[in-house]
Write a structure and sequence with these properties.
The structure is a single chain. The chain has 452 residues and is of the alpha/beta class. The chain contains 13 helices and 16 strands. Pfam families: RibD_C (PF01872).
């Protein structure tokens, strides 16, 4: 394992960055929950800290990163420090992460950011401290230039979870490729290919990190895309087509749903015969009274989606931005000029008449990808969920909001896996095994399935 000859605070910051890098390896596999990484370091003979175990949670329902790292470190956990990019999940039914660290003898835990859901935020920290474990949180207990950089990386790695918890919609990225003169296709609609092969490879990776990819009807008619993640990572995002009228071709690459699922979202009552055709091909059709990006984002939030990639044309992109559901932009700029007064642009009409109304990206990054330039930035800053001390005048409002009537029904909601008692939901991937009359174990997919 790697060892470092750094100051203790520098080592803390570097270990948290490593935990965040490990957590990022499971991007696309953990929805609706965050990504977790864990690094365990113990004192060496010469007094320096040395990494003795590291792991990440592979996907939703799999073993926690902390448990895997403890198993990798073995006996060297006793008296060691565990570095976590995020406070672990510590709910009614899953306390494995905290239990593993306590039983292994971990004496100190350094955490990048707190858990994003309010009903779980701080629970693991309190549980560890109650057992005598020293817990330090970046930005609260540890403050330095190095820890600021590590804290920023932790927020970026779990930005989808932070946006989802704060705005109650999936983290949404708008991606497009355009020429140097701002066109995404020629006057005739031809667009293959604006960007280079290197840029398209990055797009495959971006899709692989997303739970769903959204396009509009124009993209299906003009480009006939596949929207696959041909990067070999194993994760397959849902392909979504938004179309009010269902004026779509009967034959399209997206209608091949054998390997990659496709969903079509449309206005209620649109082309019933075409809906039946899609259903016969295995395409799920979802109808809305009024189809727009906001209701789609709300729907995907309720379905547990964490991250969504919008690869649509300018009209739908403008609607999504106006609806406030786009949080980040990935723009590939190719060194090409095609001109054309009627050639489409990446974003349609937003109703702006002055430059002072322009939307300015935050934390802008530039990267050369082959001959292209990739520009990324946020339209909404990454939410900061660090605890705040309320002002005296706010204290009474908080107490009033927390009051309740003894006559209220004691209802425990657990339909969604992110509810306070979500571990009991049939959407929560925590199987249980109970012995049957023959002495064998019968596995129930979830606690809810056992109840039923």
């Amino acid at each position: 394992f790697d060892s470092y000859s750094q100051s203790p605070l520098e080592f803390d910051a570097a270990s948290i960055r490593r935990a965040a890098q490990l957590a990022d390896m499971s991007a696309g596999f953990t929805a609706p929950h965050p990504n977790f990484g864990c690094v365990i370091a113990a004192p060496s003979v010469d007094g320096d800290s040395v990494v003795v175990g590291e792991e990440y949670q592979y996907g939703e329902g799999t073993a926690p990163a902390e448990l895997l790292a403890v198993e990798a470190a073995g006996e060297r956990c006793r008296g060691a420090t565990a570095y976590l990019n995020m406070e672990p999940n510590h709910c009614h039914f899953d306390q494995r992460a905290v239990t593993a660290m306590i039983q292994a003898g971990i004496s100190r835990v350094v955490i990048g950011i707190r858990y994003p859901l309010p009903h779980l935020r701080g629970k693991a920290i309190r549980a560890l401290r109650n057992e005598g474990v020293i817990v330090h949180v970046l930005g609260e207990d540890l403050l330095s230039k190095n820890t600021e950089e590590s804290l920023k990386l932790c927020r970026l790695v779990n930005a989808p979870s932070l946006y989802r918890a704060s705005f109650r919609v999936p983290f949404s990225v708008l991606k497009y490729a355009m020429t140097l003169d701002g066109k995404i296709a020629t006057n005739s609609g031809h667009s293959s290919w604006i960007s280079s092969k290197s840029s398209r490879t990055q797009v495959f990776e971006l899709r692989g990190r997303s739970d769903a990819v959204i396009v509009g009807g124009n993209t299906v008619r003009h480009d006939d895309p596949r929207l696959t993640a041909r990067h070999g990572g194993g994760h397959v995002p849902l392909r979504i087509v938004m179309s009010n009228s269902l004026n779509l071709p009967e034959t399209a690459n997206l209608w091949d749903a054998e390997e990659t699922p496709t969903m079509v979202m449309t206005q209620r009552g649109a082309r019933r015969d075409f809906q039946k055709l899609l259903a016969s091909k295995g395409i799920e059709v979802v109808e809305f009274d009024m189809l727009n990006p906001r209701v789609v984002a709300d729907y995907l939030y309720e379905c547990g989606y964490l991250s969504v990639l919008w690869e649509c044309g300018g009209v739908l992109a403008a609607s999504a931005i106006s609806s406030g559901v786009i949080h980040k932009v990935h723009a590939f700029v190719a060194p090409k000029i095609i001109g054309g007064r009627n050639a489409p642009t990446p974003v349609g009409e937003l109703g702006m008449v002055e430059m002072s109304q322009a939307l300015e990206l935050i934390d802008v990054q530039y990267e050369q990808v082959g001959p292209d330039m990739l520009v990324t930035g946020f339209l909404e800053p990454v939410p900061d969920l660090m605890p705040r001390i309320p002002a005296p005048e706010d204290t009474y409002a908080i107490l009033d909001a927390a009051s309740f009537s003894p006559y209220e029904a004691s209802i425990i909601p657990f339909y969604k896996s992110w509810d306070p008692y979500g571990a009991f939901s049939n959407f929560s991937s925590y199987p249980i095994a109970l012995p049957d009359e023959n002495g064998d174990s019968y596995v129930w997919p979830s606690v809810e399935h056992y109840y039923q």
